[in-house]
Design brief:
Structural class of chain A: alpha/beta
Shape of chain A: globular
Distance between the termini of chain B: 19 Å
Largest sheet of chain A: 5 strands, parallel
Largest interface: A-B, 20 and 15 residues
Number of strands of chain B: 16
Strand order of the largest sheet of chain B: 6-9-4-1-14-13
CATH topology of the largest domain in chain A: Rossmann fold
Keywords (chain B): Membrane, Transmembrane, Transmembrane helix
Order of helices and strands of chain A: HHEHEHEEEHEEEHEHHHHEHHEH
Number of helices of chain B: 24
Protein name (chain B): Transglutaminase domain-containing protein
CATH architecture of the largest domain in chain A: 3-Layer(aba) Sandwich
Radius of gyration of chain B: 32 Å
Largest sheet of chain B: 6 strands, antiparallel
Organism (chain B): Aeromicrobium phragmitis
Number of domains of chain A: 2
Radius of gyration of chain A: 20 Å
CATH topology of the largest domain in chain B: C8orf32 fold
Pfam families (chain B): TgpA_N (PF11992), Transglut_core (PF01841)
Helix content of chain B: 40-55%
Number of domains of chain B: 3
Oligomer: heterodimer
Strand order of the largest sheet of chain A: 2-5-8-1-9
InterPro entries (chain B): Bact_TGase-like, Papain-like_cys_pep_sf, TgpA_N, Transglutaminase-like
Strand content of chain A: 15-25%
Shape of chain B: elongated
Structural class of chain B: alpha+beta
CATH class of the largest domain in chain A: Alpha Beta
CATH class of the largest domain in chain B: Alpha Beta
Number of strands of chain A: 11
């Protein structure tokens, strides 16, 4: 099965659970394919968790879910070595990150120390406990959720850590028709349990490799750099996009191009993903519009490369 | 700042200006002059380009400096010390320029280029180079600004010359402009330069070869089809006034020699003045609404006429209007392209001059007797009569009163006109020094009133126009002829034929009156010059009382004029050759404007066509040009395309109009732009079908609009 068809199958499969959110699903698939992590920022109850679970199920992967609370410990995330009296040896009990898809609910409610344990695992894709290094599974994607209207007892995710998420999306409320549809669907069965995997883990690993091989021309590379540079020069922003952001935008664009069945990136891919990949990393000056609008306006200002 | 549009655009501007300069080709004769002006222009352009590499804002300064130095080196080299201008240089330059202005004011064209005029033109065109160079760089004014400069330049040339600029001038100017459009357009830079250069070169070649091709199509002097003449009087604002000035100037030279079979040397006519407007009589340039004259048609067979022949060798006369006897039947032996003037039976050329011409003219001496003349009315067909009787509304009534009192008791037109002629010949005096200062030096009706009632002294201009105006006031159709009075005998040939020598003093004006069945008959009221007209009385009666009086100077009561005095002015005319008659008529201007408009209309369309053709060619192995063609076509047709857009963004509004081929072209161009490997096939056919679908998806009027005003030309592609 070629990549584009597999991606379409994934999309269709996830759509059976999440109604009326094709863009969110697309971005989630792209991030999974680009080996990034996804930050979903939205009010509770719009299907953030359902999206993550459906995606993991569709690729036949394991799912762990961690509810982040102020008393959550780093070892809950990474795992811990426990002395087994029977064997008289320390035995490693893997933590929550040992799964294909890790859902971190309300990540901003844990203590900074615990947050950073997760974030280190995200970027290293390995965990070291008591001097032993454990490789994480592949694919590995953290889907963290964050409630925007935050209340008491939260620790805002520092920008350095937000930067580790490839993309941020918000689900938004479903429209009335989709919501009605949801009511009936949920009444009959628990849909996520009904999902069957459409891609095997091995196939998906091969897709990841394939997506990495997508060609980025100098022109498109320059285009991405132009956009990143523009965010750094923009008066409305305190903090622009980091070089890591540039890299992740390129990677995401490659995965997107692969999903669209192309073996090269076109500027439209970059345009499509720029807001999702860049907006959450930027710090906006007080009194300016929110980051999405600024990123969009920057993209619209940046000249499209016309040739190779 | 770098050169925004590259050298190509600037060179295109220069080529266009050279075309404009070419348009002035008829003003000045010879062809060595323009190479020097071009040298200055090229020098200025080069200095602009070089200076811009260094510092953009200094370029005009550098251009001005280069212009100054080049003009000095080329035109007043003697005044410099080792090439460095001195105070003498400035003086020399100032003198040259004021002389140039004087030359222009004298309105003599064409003539051999005098040095000062050249200096003036070099300065002018050098400044134009600087202006055009600046315009070329202007993003907004650019193409249209330069186009306006070119157009105005050509229009001025045609105004000065009194004829449309030569075709090559148009072609070269248009090509320069076209090349500029191309050079500023979106084509990738190497092909842009190549294209611009190729178009410029093609135009230059076309310009060089076009004249010979065009000239070959014209049958010399065989056609009555009127072409705009290069008028002897340059701009022809006031030919009669010029005549007066010319009469008062310079020395006498021999203009031409003639040998004739006739007993008397004929008057040689150069131009005809029909309409009096304001202060002066206006020359007829083209037909100006008058039918083509056939002087010998309608000649009553009862009237005696003799076929004569005159051979004329022109010496020191450089004119585009040929001295011809009237009425002439034909002319042989001319070199170059000559045409009958539709009105007045004269001959002229646009491209050649009389200098050195030797030709033989067949003409008819019409000799009715006085009785036959008395029987005939001075009457033309109705619409023409009105034209030939028109007088300005402010014509003083005293002129008509004088005419009536002088002709009181006479019962026919012939007697009346002869009476007026003889009255002036007898009672008036010839003077070239009549009070010129108070505006007397004209042929307008007010001057005529003064001339008739107060001064009673003047020169041929006054006499001929006074007679014509008086005739018209009596209802007799009259007009003025300009030319040469009969020459002086200068010996005989071996066969006994008389040789006449016509000098520049003999430049003259006389009156022609139309008689039914006879045609236009000459009456010359100027005392002491030529001969008055008075046909023999019918043989039944006594001997002819008046007859032809070939005895100038003895008739008048006034002082017999020394022919030498006459000369003073006419010679200047001869130098420029007979400067004569008339400026560009309204129809010439209209024609020029129409031609310019047509060229302007056709230019964008053909530039657009060329570009498309070019892209189809390049599109055989690349998709980029094809895509640009689709986008430009859509732009031309008025599709709203996003200003900044990706390939897909541009394609989106065209979906559903451009047919199924669009997606293939779109993907191909994306692949070409962004992928690591080329697409396997060409999409030329898909692109063509997309363009066709786009064109058929809009109503026909939009298609035409797109063709005539392709907006994509003005839009500078990204």
């Amino acid at each position: 099965m070629d990549l584009a068809a597999a991606a379409r199958a994934l999309h269709d499969n996830v759509s059976r659970v999440i109604d009326g959110k094709p863009d969110a699903i697309d971005t989630a698939i792209v991030v999974l394919l680009a080996e990034g992590h996804l930050l979903i920022e939205d009010v509770p109850g719009v299907g953030k968790t359902a999206l993550a679970r459906a995606l993991a199920r569709s690729v036949d992967g394991s799912v762990n879910r961690v509810q982040f609370t102020p008393d959550l410990l780093p070892s809950d995330i990474t795992g811990v070595s426990v002395f087994d009296q029977a064997t008289a040896r320390f035995e490693f009990r893997p933590g929550a990150v040992f799964a294909h898809v890790v859902i971190g609910d309300e990540i901003n409610r844990a203590s900074p120390k615990t947050q950073s344990a997760l974030l280190e695992a995200m970027s290293e894709r390995q965990v070291s406990v008591d001097g032993t290094t454990y490789q994480l599974s592949r694919p590995f994607m953290v889907v963290a959720t964050q409630n925007p209207l935050e209340m008491e007892g939260t620790y805002a995710l520092p920008e350095a850590q937000r930067d580790r998420f490839m993309a941020r999306i918000s689900m938004g409320y479903p429209d009335a028709a989709a919501e009605l549809d949801m009511i009936h669907g949920h009444d009959r069965t628990e849909p996520i349990d009904a999902l069957e995997p459409v891609v095997s883990l091995e196939d998906f690993a091969a897709m990841i490799v394939e997506a990495r091989a997508v060609h980025v021309s100098d022109a498109v590379g320059r285009y991405v750099v132009d956009i990143a540079t523009a965010t750094r020069a923009d008066d409305r922003l305190l903090l622009g996009a980091s070089p890591r952001a540039t890299l992740q935008l390129v990677r995401a664009a490659k995965a997107y191009a692969a999903v669209r069945g192309r073996e090269y990136v076109v500027p439209d891919d970059v345009d499509t993903l720029a807001v999702a990949v860049l907006a959450h990393r930027l710090i906006v000056q007080r009194g300016e519009p929110d980051a999405e609008l600024i990123v969009r306006s920057i993209v619209e200002r940046t000249p499209v490369p016309a040739g190779p | 700042m770098t050169n925004r549009f590259g050298v190509g655009a600037h060179l295109a501007g220069l080529v266009g200006l050279i075309g404009v300069l070419w348009g002035f080709g008829n003003v000045l004769q010879g062809d060595t002059w323009w190479s020097r002006v071009v040298l200055v222009m090229v020098g200025v352009q080069v200095s602009l380009l070089v200076a811009r590499r260094w510092h953009a804002t200094l370029a005009p300064l550098a251009g001005g400096l280069a212009l100054g130095l080049l003009v000095v080196w080329v035109f007043v080299p003697g005044s410099t010390v080792a090439g460095i201008p001195t105070a003498t240089t400035l003086q020399a330059l100032r003198q040259q320029l004021s002389l140039a202005i004087a030359v222009v004011a004298e309105e003599q064209a064409p003539l051999i280029p005098p040095e000062p005029l050249l200096t003036g033109m070099a300065v002018g065109f050098g400044l134009l180079v600087i202006v055009v160079d600046a315009l070329v760089r202007s993003r907004r004014l650019g193409v249209w600004g330069v186009g306006a400069v070119f157009m105005v330049g050509l229009a001025i040339a045609s105004l000065i010359v009194g004829a449309n600029p030569p075709l090559p001038a148009f072609v070269v100017t248009a090509a320069g402009w076209l090349a500029l459009v191309v050079a500023r357009s979106s084509a990738p830079s190497p092909s842009r330069v190549v294209l611009a250069t190729a178009m410029g070169a093609t135009a230059l070649i076309a310009g060089v070869f076009a004249p010979s091709v065009v000239a070959a199509d014209l049958t010399p002097a065989a056609s009555t089809w009127g072409r705009a003449p290069v008028d002897i009087f340059g701009r022809g604002i006031n030919p009669m006034l010029r005549l007066g000035e010319n009469l008062r100037r310079g020395d006498s030279v021999e203009v031409l020699r003639s040998i004739t079979s006739a007993e008397e040397a004929p008057y040689l006519k150069v131009a005809t003045l029909v309409d009096v407007e304001g202060d002066t009589w206006e020359p007829i340039v083209n037909a100006d609404g008058l039918p083509v004259e056939q002087p010998l048609d309608g000649l009553d067979p009862a009237i005696e006429s003799t076929a004569e022949e005159i051979s004329i060798a022109v010496d020191d006369l450089d004119s585009t209007m040929l001295p011809m006897p009237y009425p002439a039947e034909g002319v042989r032996g001319l070199v170059g392209t000559w045409f009958w003037h539709p009105v007045g039976g004269t001959v002229r050329s646009r491209t050649d001059t009389t200098r050195g011409q030797t030709y033989v003219a067949d003409y008819v001496e019409i000799t009715p007797d006085a009785g036959q003349m008395r029987e005939r009315q001075a009457l033309l067909p109705a619409p023409l009569t009105r034209r030939y009787l028109t007088l300005p509304p402010d014509t003083p009534p005293r002129i008509a009163a004088v005419a009536r009192s002088q002709t009181a008791g006479l019962t026919n037109d012939y007697d009346r006109i002869v009476a007026l002629q003889d009255w002036m010949r007898a009672d008036f005096s010839y003077s070239e020094s009549s009070p010129v200062a108070e505006g007397y030096d004209g042929s307008g009706v007010e001057v005529i009133e003064r001339f008739l009632l107060e001064e009673q002294s003047g020169y041929c201009v006054h006499f001929s126009s006074a007679l014509a105006v008086m005739a018209r006031s009596l209802g007799i159709p009259a007009r003025i002829a300009v030319g040469y009075a009969p020459g002086d005998p200068a010996g005989r040939t071996a066969e006994g034929e008389r040789i006449y020598s016509t000098s520049s003093d003999s430049l003259h004006a006389w009156t022609e009156v139309y008689f039914e069945g006879v045609g236009w008959v000459r009456f010359d009221a100027t005392p002491g010059v030529g001969r008055p007209t008075g046909f023999d009385e019918p043989r039944v009666g006594g001997p002819a009382p008046v007859g032809d009086l070939p005895n100038p100077g003895t008739v008048a009561g006034g002082t017999p004029q020394d022919p030498q005095a006459l000369t003073e002015g006419e010679q200047a005319v001869a130098a420029g050759a007979a400067a004569n008659a008339g400026g560009p008529s309204r129809s010439t201007l209209a024609l020029g404007a129409a031609a310019t408009a047509a060229v302007l209309l056709v230019l964008p369309a053909s530039a657009r066509r060329t570009r498309r053709w070019w892209r189809w060619r390049k599109g055989r192995d690349r998709t980029e040009p094809l895509w640009r063609e689709i986008i430009d076509t859509a732009t031309d047709l008025g599709f709203a395309l996003p200003a900044r857009a990706t390939v897909r963004g541009q394609a989106e509004p065209l979906q559903g109009h451009a047919g199924p081929g669009l997606v293939a072209v779109m993907e191909s161009v994306e692949r070409e732009r962004y992928a690591s490997t080329r697409g396997p096939t060409t999409v030329l056919e898909e692109a063509r079908s997309s363009v066709r679908s786009l064109e058929t998806s809009v109503p026909a009027w939009r298609r035409w609009l797109a063709r005539c005003f392709p907006r994509s030309l003005a839009r500078r592609a990204e």
